[in-house]
């Protein structure tokens, strides 16, 4: 097949899921009854369409590698005007790599969703949204100008709104999708201002053209540096919102209200990847502006560390993974800010597969937990009600660690190689940023291993709650028996040691969930017999392994999660930029010389010892605290810190827990100052409108009505009254007004 012809087929990559989404949506809208009977056929059609797009995107890299050129296919949208806009699609390494990432992750989610969403009434609607979501991201990837990028970004935002609020009857889901929509509109408004400013300076929307022209004008001193460093951060405000960077990250944890399958594309290959993609795409523009690059790197550094600390004490399984996404995205943004766009994109790819594997694994757990503890997210997603699931869900329990250990940065899993490159580049360019990225490796390993240990190791805790009446048991007994295993020492004895604050905190979390799974007592005191019978039947259940359609994507995603990072090791220590990443993609089947490859691996492992040591320390701490088979928290481990002031340790643990549980208090300040300020201003405007504007209009109307009413009553038809009124009207002004008397001559 000719190279030119094969590249022209790239237009089918976004068109296939777009056509499938439109047909499924139209069928659901016009023929809802027929759609319900053909819903599995609709799902198969959407899956087949994305499979076709995946096949085309997988075939293009080797065809494009024959020329090693960047090709664009453009059509003039407004040809007869001074303003000319060309739409089309480019073919370059970045586009092809991102298209493979989006399609492969999307096809895994679609196969997975066939089983996860099969009992939902909105089954066909979900597939229509998911195909449109994938088509929007692919359209964004294949955009050659900023206008197309902006349009498809808005489509991505609209699809995220629809999918996060898919179960819109639930108030938390409705609020979450509105929060995501409004937060992203803030970033997109800044992006719109930045796009307008770039066009005003360069006179072009074409990315390659405007980047070259901007660099040329900046090098010649034509552009005002203040203006340039104002417009470039406005362009960056779009990725800040889409990629959940501080301070516009608040929508990401609440996005977990949507169905679990959609969390994988949102956090892996579509929503958050859109921001990083734009940063890499306009890297040639921002790289000539050092103040903008410093801003990007500092925002990413703050996001990296804050996301890791916020995930340390989360009890919701999906929310913990959400903060992990925020932290890992924080690695990519500062890498772009220091000029390391290649490691940033490399980490985007490795993180996408690792996080997709983790989220689909969590969905498998939640799907099984719902049959045991109910369908409320506060129960089915609560890690304190899980435990020991590796015995009951062996495939999920085997594939899930690959994602968590990869996120920890443990070799030879994929995220280790990309994260290590970012840390190395950070130390070379900025010691403070290098210190931040290195320190973050410790908390990252701690919270990711904590998620695995609480979920898959130990004993299953949801069916070990004591159903003793509240009138016959103390709260402490309920707390102790609720975290599994044989009852340990009493709380009074443990409290005397002054080192059990962390354990008490974790137990208090379980105590809060005890009421969610323990049947309530009747008014007379003893527990209702029917509640005991129903609870006992449920108490005998354990989560079971998901079916083949759900575990197959987990097995497939475990392969790139484990080995994709090895393709990023440059054996010859040569090549820079995105072309090297593209060479990785097309050279995966052919291994280089073994000696050179192993030497480079050894060098990378040696240079990564400091960050790897912090990761291992985080793993060790998490394992010692949560890795016991019969306890939720190991209190003896905390008692070993005899050299540390106990009150100081308790205070530190309490601060970390409060910081994480309260989301860093950022939502509180937003609600207090921004939301409260907007509400207060709205009330002032409402009062001004009611009492000033409406008051003036209503007062004028009332006075006219009163005057007319008075005149109507005065006009009674008696002629004698008219002369009387005329005389009064003449005499009254004369008597009131003091007319001056002219002087005598």
From TrEMBL:
Keyword Methyltransferase set for record: no
InterPro entries, A to Z: NADH_UbQ_OxRdtase_chlpt_su5_C (IPR002128), NADHpl_OxRdtase_5_subgr (IPR018393), ND/Mrp_TM (IPR001750), NU5C-like (IPR003945), Proton_antipo_N (IPR001516)
Membrane topology field: Multi-pass membrane protein
Keyword terms, alphabetized: Chloroplast, Membrane, NAD, NADP, Plastid, Plastoquinone, Quinone, Thylakoid, Translocase, Transmembrane, Transmembrane helix, Transport
Molecular function as annotated in GO: NADH dehydrogenase (ubiquinone) activity; NADH dehydrogenase activity; quinone binding
Transmembrane segments: 12-31, 94-112, 124-143, 150-169, 189-210, 222-242, 262-283, 550-569, 604-626, 722-741
Chemical reaction(s) catalysed: a plastoquinone + NADH + (n+1) H(+)(in) = a plastoquinol + NAD(+) + n H(+)(out); a plastoquinone + NADPH + (n+1) H(+)(in) = a plastoquinol + NADP(+) + n H(+)(out)
E.C. number: 7.1.1.-
Ranges where the NADH-Ubiquinone oxidoreductase (complex I) chain 5 N-terminal domain occurs: 80-127
All residue ranges annotated as the NADH:quinone oxidoreductase/Mrp antiporter transmembrane domain in the record: 143-439
Keyword NAD: yes
Domain (NADH:ubiquinone/plastoquinone oxidoreductase chloroplast chain 5 C-terminal) ranges: 450-689
Domain of life: Eukaryota
UniProt GO BP: ATP synthesis coupled electron transport; electron transport coupled proton transport
Compartments reported by the entry: Plastid, Chloroplast thylakoid membrane
One family name in Pfam for this protein: Proton_antipo_C
Cellular component, GO, one term: chloroplast thylakoid membrane
Main location per the UniProt record: plastid
Similarity annotation: Belongs to the complex I subunit 5 family.
Protein task: NDH shuttles electrons from NAD(P)H:plastoquinone, via FMN and iron-sulfur (Fe-S) centers, to quinones in the photosynthetic chain and possibly in a chloroplast respiratory chain. The immediate electron acceptor for the enzyme in this species is believed to be plastoquinone. Couples the redox reaction to proton translocation, and thus conserves the redox energy in a proton gradient.
Entries under NCBIfam families matching the protein: NDH_I_L
Subunit structure, interactors included: NDH is composed of at least 16 different subunits, 5 of which are encoded in the nucleus.
The name this protein goes by in its record: NAD(P)H-quinone oxidoreductase subunit 5, chloroplastic
Organism, scientific name: Athyrium opacum
Lineage: Eukaryota, Viridiplantae, Streptophyta, Embryophyta, Tracheophyta
């Amino acid at each position: 097949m000719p190279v030119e012809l094969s590249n022209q087929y790239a237009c089918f990559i976004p068109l296939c899921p777009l056509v499938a989404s439109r047909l499924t949506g139209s069928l659901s809208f016009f023929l809802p009854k027929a759609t319900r009977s053909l819903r599995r056929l609709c799902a198969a059609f959407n899956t087949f369409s994305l499979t076709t797009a995946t096949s085309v995107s997988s075939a293009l890299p080797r065809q494009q590698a024959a020329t090693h050129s960047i090709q664009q296919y453009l059509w003039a949208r407004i040809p007869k005007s001074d303003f000319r806009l060309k739409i089309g699609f480019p073919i370059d390494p970045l586009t092809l790599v991102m298209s493979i990432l989006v399609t492969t992750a999307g096809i895994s989610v679609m196969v997975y969703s066939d089983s996860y969403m099969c009992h939902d009434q909105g089954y066909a609607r979900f597939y229509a949204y998911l195909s449109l979501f994938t088509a929007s991201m692919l359209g964004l990837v294949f955009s050659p100008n900023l206008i197309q990028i902006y349009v498809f970004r808005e489509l991505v935002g609209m699809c995220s709104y629809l999918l996060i609020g898919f179960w819109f009857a639930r108030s938390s889901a409705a609020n979450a999708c509105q929060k995501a929509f409004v937060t992203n509109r803030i970033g997109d408004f800044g992006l719109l201002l930045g796009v307008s400013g770039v066009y005003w300076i360069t006179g072009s929307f074409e990315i390659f053209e405007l980047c070259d022209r901007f660099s040329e004008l900046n090098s010649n001193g034509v552009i005002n540096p203040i203006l340039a460093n104002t417009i470039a951060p406005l362009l960056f405000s779009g990725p800040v919102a889409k990629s959940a960077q501080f301070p516009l990250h608040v929508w990401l944890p609440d996005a977990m209200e949507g169905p679990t399958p959609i969390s994988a594309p949102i956090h892996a290959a579509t929503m958050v990847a859109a921001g990083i993609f734009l940063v890499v795409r306009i890297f040639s523009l921002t790289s000539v502006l050092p103040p903008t690059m410093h801003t990007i790197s500092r925002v990413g550094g703050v996001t990296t560390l804050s996301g890791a600390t916020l995930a340390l004490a989360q009890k919701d399984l999906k929310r913990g993974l959400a903060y992990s996404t925020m932290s890992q995205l924080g690695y990519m943004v500062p890498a772009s800010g220091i000029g390391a766009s290649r490691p940033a994109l490399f980490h985007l790819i490795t993180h996408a597969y690792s996080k997709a594997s983790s989220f689909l694994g969590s969905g498998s757990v939640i799907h099984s937990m719902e049959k045991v503890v109910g369908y409320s997210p506060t129960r089915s997603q609560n890690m304190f009600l899980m435990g020991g699931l590796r015995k009951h869900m062996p495939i999920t329990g085997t594939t899930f660690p690959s994602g968590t250990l990869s996120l920890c940065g443990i070799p030879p899993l994929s995220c280790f190689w990309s994260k290590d490159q970012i840390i190395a580049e950070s130390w070379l360019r900025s010691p403070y940023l290098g210190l931040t990225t290195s320190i973050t490796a410790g908390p990252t390993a701690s919270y990711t291993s904590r998620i695995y240990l609480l979920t898959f190791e130990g004993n299953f805790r949801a069916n070990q709650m004591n159903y003793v009446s509240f009138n016959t048991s103390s709260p402490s007994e309920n707390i102790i028996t609720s975290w599994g295993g044989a009852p340990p020492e009493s709380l009074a004895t443990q409290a005397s040691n002054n080192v059990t604050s962390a354990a008490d905190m974790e137990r208090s979390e379980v105590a809060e969930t005890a009421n969610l799974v323990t049947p309530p007592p009747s008014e007379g005191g003893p527990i209702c017999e029917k509640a005991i019978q129903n609870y006992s039947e449920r108490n005998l259940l354990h989560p079971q392994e998901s079916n083949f359609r759900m575990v197959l994507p987990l097995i497939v995603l475990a392969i790139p999660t484990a080995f994709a990072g090895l393709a990023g090791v440059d054996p010859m220590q040569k090549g820079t930029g995105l072309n090297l990443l593209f060479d990785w993609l097309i050279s995966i089947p052919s291994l280089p010389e073994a000696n050179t490859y192993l030497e480079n691996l050894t060098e990378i492992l040696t240079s990564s010892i400091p960050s790897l040591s912090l990761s291992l320390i985080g793993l060790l701490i998490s394992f010692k605290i949560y890795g016991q088979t019969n306890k939720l928290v190991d209190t003896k481990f905390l008692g070993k810190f005899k050299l540390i002031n106990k009150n100081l340790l308790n205070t530190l643990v309490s601060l970390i827990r409060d910081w994480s549980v309260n989301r860093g208090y950022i939502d509180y300040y937003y609600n207090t100052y921004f939301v409260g300020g907007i509400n207060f201003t709205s009330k002032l405007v409402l009062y001004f409108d009611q009492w000033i504007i409406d008051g003036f209009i209503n007062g004028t109307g009332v006075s006219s009505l009163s005057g007319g009413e008075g005149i109507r009553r005065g006009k009674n038809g008696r002629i004698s009254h008219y002369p009387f009124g005329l005389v009064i009207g003449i005499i009254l002004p004369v008597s009131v007004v003091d007319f001056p008397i002219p002087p005598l001559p």
